[in-house]
Amino acid sequence: MELRWEAGNIIDKRVHEIGVIALGSFLENHGSVLPIDTDAKIASYIALKVSIITGAKFLGVVLPSTEYPYVKHGVHNKPEEVVDYLRFILSWSRRLGIKKILIVNCHGGNVLISRYLGDLEREFNMRIVMKNITFIHAGTEEVSVGSVIGIGREDKIEDHHPSKYPEIGMVGLKEARESNKLIDRDAKVVEKYGVKIDRKLGEEILKRSIEECIGCIRELIN
After folding, report:
1. Could you give all domains of the chain from N- to C-terminal order, each with its CATH number?
2. pTM for this one?
3. Does an H or E element contain 189, and which?
């Protein structure tokens, strides 16, 4: 049987050699507005949208996630466990003719797996690119994106405050703030400006994120 490589809405028939994987987190608190699997849902939304627009193959979402040991707002795994799950996906992807991978990551702690990607590239003879799209945890950007894609509870925004939910902006996570200057910087932003839902901002972030990921696909094609 001969497959019709040029059928359907694709930007180039070579896009069939490219797979898109969503990477986030399934078990971490995000205040009162967003669910505990916010990062996984945002990553999956963007990855699937990019797959639909370009024709690249959506390979699904990675189930484990990892985090810095001093960030304690959820349940996470070792970096090696995330890599092992990726190894499973990549093994099957090769059977589909995939030669290049775009990982859409929407959970900051997952950047810890970056040092393993070169090993995976050599093991599977693949090109692997990880695009990190992260926000201040449960802050204005993230609740705005969550509202736009339909996972947020706008009626709970008044209750969405770090005095009640210390993980918002990681304001109340003392160890994390003391261990990481960037986390402390973001926490100070939330302390100063608070958190609000701005759907226009959410739409702009999604549009930009999707466009940047499409740009990654085009670079992988060429």
Report:
1. 16-221 (3.40.50.10310)
2. 0.97
3. helix 181-193
